[in-house]
């Protein structure tokens, strides 16, 4: 038999909430659903829709506000990014070794065939080797102030030191053959040590004062012969980007040679190739800002060191 008049049969639409479902918890939100109600009336069975409220369960909450699923995805993405950078740096390191060995071998061949002339092999470092390494590192080198310097004259060039890539940036920026005062350990490095010795660069032993004084005398003789000699007067690379006091011994070379001191500021090299850790290269912009030559006549080395450092700091503080 059908239902009696006044009684109804209910069929939920949109999933009516079951009376046996658990009560709404904290944070649940109300929602409306349409419920069909069938009743017997004067004209037979009729449908009477009715709105009925129900509670939707609250969104899940996680301890500390961290979703384990999204947090795990973030960790996986970070791990993948580190692996990709490690792989890219391995390729860059292999390219650096091959590029350096190839160009030094070619430069030494040119040096030997030319009877020991150094100008062309030194310019090969500036026009071929250094730009290639900067390209391989994804670094763009911007030079400021080179047009205000007479590059036909000898200088003792002094610069702040943050990274191994400083040498590449200076080779690229200086439009003249460039020599370096290098630490003694570089003499034993294959290819680099061979090239430096052939080009007449000076090695300085930092532990032996007498030998260091002899190296500074040879440096002064090199500058007197017309060379541009680069010295990093901080003595070591800066780990935090702070420019350390300049050691006055480096300026004795300029005084002995009667040459002007040329301050140069390097910005961004430590970000491209940090001084600590493994070969961890990141693309970036390197800015080489060349200052104003400082006369040395009648000056002492302490005053020269202070003035050169102040000029480097002012160049680093310049915006852009």
Please write out the topology.
Elements lengths: L7 E5 L16 E13 L2 E13 L11 H46 L5 H18 L2 E6 L10 E5 L6 H8 L4 E6 L8 H7 L3 E3 L4 H16 L3 E4 L17 H9 L2 E8 L1 H4 L11 E7 L10 H17 L3
Parallel strand pairs: 4-10, 5-8, 5-9, 6-7, 6-8
Antiparallel strand pairs: 1-2, 2-3, 9-10
Helix pairs in contact: 1-2, 1-4, 2-3, 5-6, 6-8
Quick description:
The protein has 320 residues and is an alpha/beta fold.
How would you portray this structure in words?
There is one protein chain. This protein has 320 residues and is of the alpha/beta class. The protein folds into two domains: 8-14 and 25-61, no CATH class; 81-317, Glycerol-3-phosphate (1)-acyltransferase, CATH 3.40.1130.10. Helices cover 39% and strands 22% of the residues. It has helices spanning 68-113, 119-136, 166-173, 192-198, 209-224, 249-257, 269-272, 301-317; strands at 8-12, 29-41, 44-56, 139-144, 155-159, 178-183, 202-204, 228-231, 260-267, 284-290. The strands form two sheets. The protein has a seven-stranded mixed sheet with strand order 4-10-9-5-8-6-7, with helices on both faces. Strands 1-2-3 form a three-stranded antiparallel sheet, with no helix packed on it. Helix 1 (68-113) runs antiparallel to helix 2, helix 2 (119-136) crosses helix 3 (166-173) and helix 5 (209-224) runs parallel beside helix 6 (249-257). The longest helix has 46 residues, at 68-113. The protein is globular. The relative contact order is 0.11.
């Amino acid at each position: 038999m059908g239902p009696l008049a006044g009684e109804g049969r209910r069929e939920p639409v949109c999933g009516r909430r079951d009376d046996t479902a658990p009560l709404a918890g904290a944070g649940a939100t109300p929602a409306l659903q349409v419920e069909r109600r069938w009743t017997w009336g004067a004209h037979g069975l009729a449908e009477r829709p009715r709105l009925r409220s129900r509670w939707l369960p609250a969104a899940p909450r996680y301890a500390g506000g961290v979703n384990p699923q999204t947090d795990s995805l973030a960790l996986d993405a970070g791990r993948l990014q580190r692996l990709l950078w490690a792989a890219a740096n391995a390729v860059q390191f292999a390219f650096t070794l091959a590029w350096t060995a190839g160009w030094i071998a070619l430069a030494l061949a040119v040096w030997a065939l030319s009877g020991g002339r150094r100008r062309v092999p030194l310019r090969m470092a500036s026009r071929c080797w250094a730009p290639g390494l900067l390209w391989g590192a994804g670094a763009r080198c911007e030079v400021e102030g080179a047009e205000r310097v007479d590059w036909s004259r000898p200088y003792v060039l002094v610069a702040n030191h943050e990274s191994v890539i400083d040498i590449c940036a200076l080779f690229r920026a200086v439009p003249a053959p460039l020599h370096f005062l290098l630490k003694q350990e570089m003499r034993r490095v294959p290819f680099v040590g061979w090239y430096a010795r052939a080009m007449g660069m000076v090695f300085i032993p930092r532990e032996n004062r007498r030998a260091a004084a002899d190296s500074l005398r040879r440096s002064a003789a090199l500058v007197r012969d017309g060379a541009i000699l680069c010295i990093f007067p901080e003595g070591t690379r800066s780990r935090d980007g702070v420019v350390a006091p300049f050691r006055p011994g480096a300026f004795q070379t300029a005084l002995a040679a009667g040459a002007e001191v040329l301050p140069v500021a390097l910005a961004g090299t430590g970000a491209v190739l940090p001084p600590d850790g493994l070969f961890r290269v990141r693309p970036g912009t390197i800015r080489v800002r060349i200052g104003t030559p400082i006369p040395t006549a009648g000056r002492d080395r302490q005053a020269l060191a202070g003035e050169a450092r102040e000029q480097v700091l002012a160049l680093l503080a310049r915006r852009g």
